[in-house]
Amino acid sequence: MAIYYRRMMLNVSRLVGRHIKLNNNLKTNIPIVSYGLPVNNFKFQYLYESSNRSYNNNNKNDNTTYYYFLLSSLFGFFNFKEEDGEEISELIITIKRSILSIQRNEFKKAEQMLHVALRQAQALQNQNAITYIYDLMANLAFETKQLKKAETLFLLVLERLLSNGVTENDLKVIHISLKLANIYEQTGDMEKAETGYKYCLENVQIYVDNNPKDENVLILLAMIYDWYAQMLLSQARYADAFKYFEQSYNLCVKVNGREHEQTVNLLNYLGTVSYKMEEYDKAIEYLTTATQIGRSLPDMTHIASVHINLGNVYLKKGLYLNAKKACYEGQRIAKNKEDEESLVEANKCLDDIKKLL
């Protein structure tokens, strides 16, 4: 793993030099900046199959799952107080305004404010603040799929952290390494991605062993399991994917409780992998549990797709009346929540059932 890490860092100077003038041309629009902020990596896996076609909503960033922990890689790094001086106070206010703009979906304004903040930090020669702002920009690029730019910025942040004495197994480094692994996965470098995910698992386990009750570390571990399992699922490595989804699910229940959107998400994945392994009864069990929990989560946007998944498993087993009931429920919820994608899939499923009844 150390060799992997050193090789990754060899590219820093080359990549950063290519994009060093970030103040003028960085385009960003979704933040990962603070405690308890949702990570936009939630996805539902459709099981729908018709005419040898499989529909999968496979993008890690399409929907929203809630990993409640210190999501910014540099949590606690920028620890200045407003009373530290007027110029520092102005810098903090600028960052706060950018975050507020992001929360209001005023993304262009937020981008402008981050550039202002970076210029302020550079004028102050405040290296910690510069590193922090670069990290925010990296996360913004990551979430908006500007993957090359995100890679460049994350590597820049890593270089700055390491030069400041941060060690390779520090939690800040693990956070960034996880996102880099996901970038490599999305850009098709699966060997680098797998090595990166394993690097994160190996190093975060040290923190779990030292403090098994630290919820922030446990949820970080759950997220690593989840993202790694998603890659394994995409590669049809179903047994390994199931193992890591199950571990993520157990940690999620431990930290967040059973009635939580991420619990439903992971049950949906467990049902999906069981379906892919042709373990249909297990798939029905996981998806039924997910729908039951979903009833207590009225604000969950994409719960309709879990009902549709359940209907598709029933359809595969030849239980057409059960399938019809589940897909009708998915259709009803999709209409109520104006979930057009799920509505399309519910209608397709119901059309197939109609042909068979």
TrEMBL record:
The keyword Mitochondrion applies. SMART domains: TPR (SM00028). Pfam families: TPR_12 (PF13424), TPR_8 (PF13181). One of its GO terms (biological process) is mitochondrial respiratory chain complex III assembly. SUPFAM superfamilies: TPR-like. The keyword Repeat applies. TPR repeats lie at residues 264-297. Transmembrane segments: none annotated. GO terms for cellular component: mitochondrial inner membrane. Keywords: Mitochondrion, Repeat, TPR repeat, Transit peptide. It is found in: Mitochondrion. Belongs to the TTC19 family. This is Tetratricopeptide repeat protein 19, mitochondrial. It comes from Vespula pensylvanica.
